From TrEMBL, chains A, B:
Ranges for domain Acyl-CoA dehydrogenase/oxidase N-terminal: 41-157
Boundaries of every Acetyl-CoA dehydrogenase-like C-terminal domain copy: 461-561
Domain Acyl-CoA oxidase/dehydrogenase middle: 161-270
Group of enzyme by EC: oxidoreductase
Ranges in coiled-coil conformation: 474-501
Protein name per the record: 3-methylmercaptopropionyl-CoA dehydrogenase
Domain Acyl-CoA dehydrogenase/oxidase C-terminal stretches: 282-448
UniProt xrefs under InterPro entries: Acyl-CoA_dh-like_C_dom, Acyl-CoA_Oxase/DH_mid-dom, Acyl-CoA_Oxase/DH_mid-dom_sf, AcylCo_DH-like_C, AcylCo_DH/oxidase_C, AcylCoA_DH/ox_N, AcylCoA_DH/ox_N_sf, AcylCoA_DH/oxidase_NM_dom_sf
Similarity-based family: Belongs to the acyl-CoA dehydrogenase family.
Annotated PANTHER family: ACYL-COA DEHYDROGENASE (PTHR42803), BROAD-SPECIFICITY LINEAR ACYL-COA DEHYDROGENASE FADE5 (PTHR42803:SF1)
Enzyme Commission number(s): 1.3.99.41
Reaction catalyzed: 3-(methylsulfanyl)propanoyl-CoA + oxidized [electron-transfer flavoprotein] + H(+) = 3-(methylsulfanyl)acryloyl-CoA + reduced [electron-transfer flavoprotein]
Function: Involved in the assimilation of dimethylsulphoniopropionate (DMSP), an important compound in the fixation of carbon in marine phytoplankton, by mediating the conversion of 3-(methylthio)propanoyl-CoA (MMPA-CoA) to 3-(methylthio)acryloyl-CoA (MTA-CoA).
Length: 564, 564
């Protein structure tokens, strides 16, 4: 089944729900963008997703990546698709125009990312890591580095990788052992081995720019002794041409549950030459720069795959005849059975609210980065910090549930590879794990973002929503959202209070708290969409409020059971 | 990591929780069995699981089944393992001693099944289907058929398959098209094609006995025009020797998400010779005979895989050092982190309650089949009918969640194939789909078992529990269970009432109702286990009551939202 780019639904968010052009009024960098442009870009992105990415998605899963003599070959068609991707400018959407980027808002880019993840998650990862490397260099590289690497990373002609994880250092990067020693010429020599490196080696770009975390000889132990280095696969000569091969090589690729067309590499450095990015021992801080954007991107993987699974399940439920409907039709299409409706509605509930949160969060990242209004930037920074772990973890937890439901709609046909429904489940599963496991996201939310600042971020979040609720007419749903916000405030305060006597409390309830907060956020967003849709979304919104939102009761009780 | 057969936990259920020997007092067929025997059999089953089945589980997944020229080759080692399985008598545990079976209780067999599913789900399926065919023939075959086929099916020397599904007839078997026309000699000639036939063809047994659903020429349309036929792969001569090859052949095998070592076949019949089992047009009724047993068995797949995933996750959480614990230890084993404890506790909550329900339900199946007390049989029939859809659907839904959590504990290592955690997820996923999707189970529970008999089955279920609660000392948990039983009764009555005006209601709330009922059943079983354990299970039981059972609040609210 061909993917149908949901451009109308997306433009509804851009134009009617979040009114991006109004929201960005006063931001000089976006002054020339309007809804026509946004719509046109989304149309083109939809064509690229359907015409270029989807056709090589299942074949990419079947074929996978291959490693021979240190060379990784991507599946058939990937190299050509990547070439079109670069030529189409899809890597440079949000990047800095000073280095060849298009400077468009993240709030738009999240929608493009969704379409690409829908149609070929494995493919997207190469570009996602390149974007991460770009952002890090942009923020922490010196001017010479930026000039040398950024234009080719931004165009996608070169790709990037983030070399963080080691066999004994995953969630806890403080344990990493890779060593960097300074050479006479100011460069560094790196020794060590990294695992789970997405896009660490492949055949699609002419160079790969690795950002590597390592320890200097005088480094303190733990997370405060980690530095960041740029380690290109091929040296780049001063004239910009490709030079000699560097001693960073792929020793193995992982055999994984899914995203098989994405190369996941063991990268060995044997005297690889690198250059320090940012100050010594500040590597983890450098990583934090790109974290919000990368985590949002990985979250969107969950929405994209959920949407693809939903479209296929809807199509199948329309066509597959099975059983007797309550109106007597037999055999009736699956969609006439109430339990199948529940499944499709649940999927849509998650996808639409997730997409809205992606745009909302994207808009705060844009304000934080582009606005010149100091107060607005400060608020946007807080909102981004608060919403990012929610988006990453809940998009992907809900995405996995959604893909699993979509597979269930297909019955036995969902379990065989032919229909592609099981690939979505396998491809989605990793998004709950990498870029900080969803457990780590939950700890980030409740530890750093709630308890550590004694509810300050939560208050900003609540104020933003409450201010917006003033613009929405009174309704049952509005009343429900208001009550939930009060519940969230009270429960959060109890957790903060409890944490001073019981340091375990955050760990014990972290995941439930993240899901609880996410569902309340989704309720606000469904209300906001319903209100902007003039009645056309009432039924779908009601389903969410009746059937999905009910989960907050269990989550709240579960959290309260751990409070004294 | 080697599987640790949980024989002590199992014998705790057999001896202390359900007191099987007391429960079966008065059943002549079980008079000679005692706890020593049960314990010895479980010990042996554990050895077989660890020594024979587990070593070929991951290799079986990697290798898969292969089809060439109509011959299916199972992965290396499967044929030898099957031979040991037959020689060990593992196929014949519950079968009729008159035909070579051991006549042991199902309540014991469920525990053996769990161990085997834990260590090699693909392997188990061959025997599970053979058991289904055996039960059907035992109940509906004529004496000649029984003598001809049962001894070799019961020993496992021959295997069985159930040929139901066709491309356009899955959940709705009434749509099937395979035709059977009578031959002069009283046999039938079958034409048609079946899909998703587990064990339809393989190289482990010398003959395969297919039970095939087909239509006679004069058959009424729909489900009331389906007859059941026995169609052997090789004809069986009157002296019991193997005769000529029958015209039922494997045309293709499916490429699936998991259970790759289980052959899932397209079976084509081109004038295949068969014999009618049971009366004409009563094929679906014949299938119902074996349905409870088969559904329970498939449910246990969820518990078995959940247990294996739990053991591995626990082991990993003990050994993997990562992050700082709240007591300051760094790096600390994962198990010291509260969020990891939540994950492990959730897994154990589901596994232990599921295992208890399997034994409880198994004991009712035993009473229904073996007791000579008419009232006891009647009650046991109702309890089996009520509990079976709950067991099948909830064991597997919770099993999938459990395997997913286990994978999450491993972080990135859970996503790569090497550690085996992702295989459990893939292998478990099918159990929510086949043997009646979990949606079908939920409709069975709320439609046939609740609404159609106006709550009669529910009342028997409630009375059984209430009678047992009288034997349990008062406690907070007991009080909670009592309240939940009242809630369940009231909510069920509302659904029954509503259904007379709103025939959609069952479909709309079916899945939530099944989960709601299952969790309340688990609460009763946790209470019962806690009470039998003299304090040693209090902490684990409390976790279930505090953190997992809280979900009933959301489920209840979701159901109520659809009631007028």
């Amino acid at each position: 089944m061909q993917y149908q780019a949901p451009v109308d639904d997306m433009m509804f968010l851009v134009k009617d729900v979040f009114k991006l052009t109004d929201r960005f009024a006063g931001i000089a960098d976006f002054a020339e963008f309007d809804n026509d442009l946004y719509g046109a870009i989304l149309e083109e992105a939809g064509k690229f997703a359907t015409g270029v990415l989807q056709p090589i998605n299942r074949s990419g899963d079947e074929e996978g990546c291959r490693l021979q003599d240190g060379v990784v070959t991507t599946p058939e068609g990937f190299k050509e698709a990547y070439q079109s991707y670069v030529e189409g400018g899809w890597q440079s959407i949000t990047a800095d125009p000073n280095y060849g980027g298009q400077g468009l808002p993240k709030a738009l880019h999240v929608l493009i990312e969704e379409m690409f993840y829908s149609t070929n998650t494995s493919f997207c990862l190469y570009g996602s890591l390149t974007a991460g490397a770009t952002q890090l260099l942009q923020a922490h590289g010196d001017e010479q580095m930026k000039e040398k690497y950024l234009p080719n990373l931004i165009s996608g002609q070169w790709s990037g990788s983030m070399c963080l994880t080691e066999a004994h250092a995953g969630s806890d990067l403080g344990l990493l052992k890779t060593k960097a020693t300074e050479n006479d010429d100011g460069s560094y020599s790196l020794e060590g081995s990294k695992i789970f490196i997405t896009g660490g080696e492949h055949d699609m770009a002419e160079n790969i720019i690795h950002l590597v975390l390592a320890r200097l000889p005088d480094a303190p132990e733990g997370p405060k002794g980690i530095s960041c280095f740029i380690v290109p696969k091929f040296m780049v000569n001063d004239d910009g041409s490709i030079g000699e091969r560097n001693a960073i090589r792929c020793g193995a690729i992982e055999h994984k549950m899914g995203i098989k067309a994405s190369s996941t590499c063991v990268m060995n450095m044997d005297g690889a030459k690198g250059w320090l990015v940012g100050p010594p021992h500040q590597g983890l801080r450098c990583m934090f720069t790109m974290m919000n954007l990368e985590r949002l991107s990985i979250g969107i993987q969950g929405i994209g795959l959920g949407e693809m699974s939903f479209q296929q399940a809807t199509n199948y439920a329309n066509e597959r005849l099975q059983g007797r409907a309550t109106d007597g039709e037999a055999p009736a299409p699956l969609k006439k059975h109430g339990d199948v409706q529940r499944m499709l509605n649940t999927m849509e509930s998650f996808n639409k609210a997730g997409r809205a949160l992606a745009v909302w969060l994207g808009s705060y990242l844009d304000i934080a980065f582009h606005s010149e209004d100091g107060d607005a930037v400060k608020k946007a920074d807080i909102m981004s910090a608060w919403l990012t772990p929610i988006a990453k973890a809940y998009f992907t937890d809900a995405g996995y549930e959604t893909c699993t439901i979509g597979q269930q709609v297909f019955g036995g046909h969902g379990y065989v590879r032919e229909w592609g429904m099981e690939q979505h489940v396998r491809d989605c599963r990793i998004a709950q794990i990498y870029e900080g496991t969803n457990g780590i996201q939950a700890l980030d939310l409740i530890g750093r973002k709630l308890i550590a600042n004694k509810g300050e971020f939560l208050n900003v979040f609540l104020s933003e929503i409450k201010a917006d609720l003033n613009r929405i007419d009174s309704s049952d749903h509005k009343h429900q959202v208001e009550e939930l916000l009060t519940d969230l405030e009270e429960l959060s305060q109890k957790i903060i209070n409890e944490s001073s006597n019981n340091p375990e409390i955050g760990q014990l309830v972290a995941c439930d708290y993240l899901h609880y907060t996410a569902l309340i956020t989704y309720a606000y967003l469904w209300l906001k969409m319903e209100s902007a849709a003039n009645g056309t979304l009432d039924e779908k919104s009601s389903f969410f409020f009746k059937r999905v939102l009910a989960r907050v009761l269990g989550l709240k009780a579960s959290i309260e059971s751990e409070l004294s």
